[in-house]
Amino acid sequence: MEDVIKVTQLSKSYGSQKAVSELELSVKKGTVFGLLGANGAGKSTAIECILGTKKADQGQVLILGLNPVRDRKSLFQKIGVQFQENCYQTEILVSELCEETACLYQSPADWKSLCSEFGLSGKYKSPVKNLSGGERQKLFIVMALIPNPQVVFLDELTTGLDAKARRDVWKILSELKRRGLTIFLTSHFMDEVEALCDQICILKEGRAVFYGTVGQAKQFSGCEDFEEAYLALSGEEDEIG
Ligand SMILES: Nc1ncnc2c1ncn2[C@@H]1O[C@H](COP(=O)(O)OP(=O)(O)OP(=O)(O)O)[C@@H](O)[C@H]1O
Fold first, then answer.
1. Does an H or E element contain 163, and which?
2. Residues 178-222: tens digit of each pLDDT
3. Among 29, 133, 195, 209, which is least packed, fewest CB within 10 Å?
């Protein structure tokens, strides 16, 4: 199976603070990869360096065989990105934002079907700023899928969504994965990670402390429950205790 994402020896510091250290990972086509870790562990920095929106100090990244910095233009057409915050004009309507986004891509997905899948069809004429936190989060996932991407990056996938909306998002992503979409996500919800991820990497202070499957994480930690395994491996348990 081909590597859709390949990261080698990726490092990034902010002054003397090492945010990501010598990160190595690879993601196969049609799989879901979860980058996990406590607040401040380095997940967003890693994603931004992988996407080339932040300059890494060292390391190599290939997405679909392309270099995200050098091949930015061609890669832009093939990937989708959901950030924790998006920039948009203050008064823009949901329909306008979706249309403007779709215009940027050569073969965009039908944004109206995406909105309807995500339960947003009644909101086309609402200003984005009037959406609830959860609705806005769903809209950002829709925007990441509008490019009709081969690979999608979802940072804090379902933060702010209610229980039903989270399940709905999982179902949609599982279906997209079945159709061959490769998904790279970060999440603080271990039930979500267990339901979706084929491979995970747990970061602690910028370093990978575990890399493998959810099953292997349980085995390695000696915990039957994945959240317990995650807490033990990520070191979050130490901080609480
Ligand atoms: N622009 C910046 N300048 C200085 N330090 C930064 C900057 N961005 C992040 N950091 C620091 O780098 C470390 C990693 O931050 P990062 O945002 O990558 O973590 P994260 O795992 O995504 O956290 P969260 O789960 O809270 O979103 C943290 O210690 C953070 O304070």
1. helix 163-178
2. 989 999 999 999 999 999 999 999 999 999 999 999 999 999 999
3. 133
Question: Does a structural domain hold residue 114?
Answer: no
Centre of ligand 1 to C-alpha 102, Å, is 31
In a domain, 27, yes or no: yes
194 within some domain? yes
Query: Taking a C-beta distance cutoff of 8 angstroms, is the pair 44, 84 a contact?
Result: yes
Whether 141 maps to a domain, the answer reads no
- 16 pocket-lining for ligand 1 (C-beta < 6 Å): no
**CB atoms closer than 10 angstroms to residue 212:** 13
Query: How far apart, in whole angstroms, are the C-alpha atoms of residue 222 and residue 61?
Result: 33
Pocket-testing residue among 10, 12, 13, 17, ligand 1, by greatest number of atoms within 8 A of Cβ? 17
Between CA 215 and CA 194 the distance in angstroms is 9
ipTM strictly over 0.90?
A: yes
The domain of 231 spans 1-78+153-161+186-240
| Residue whose CB lies within 8 A of the most ligand 1 atoms, among 43, 159, 230, for a mutation test | 43
CATH number for the domain including 198? Answer: 3.40.50.300
Query: For residue 11, which of 45, 52, 42, 56 has the smallest C-alpha distance?
Result: 56
- Asked if residue 38 lies in contact with residue 109, where contact means CB atoms within 8 angstroms, the answer is no
In this structure, the strands spanning 32-37 and 182-186 are parallel
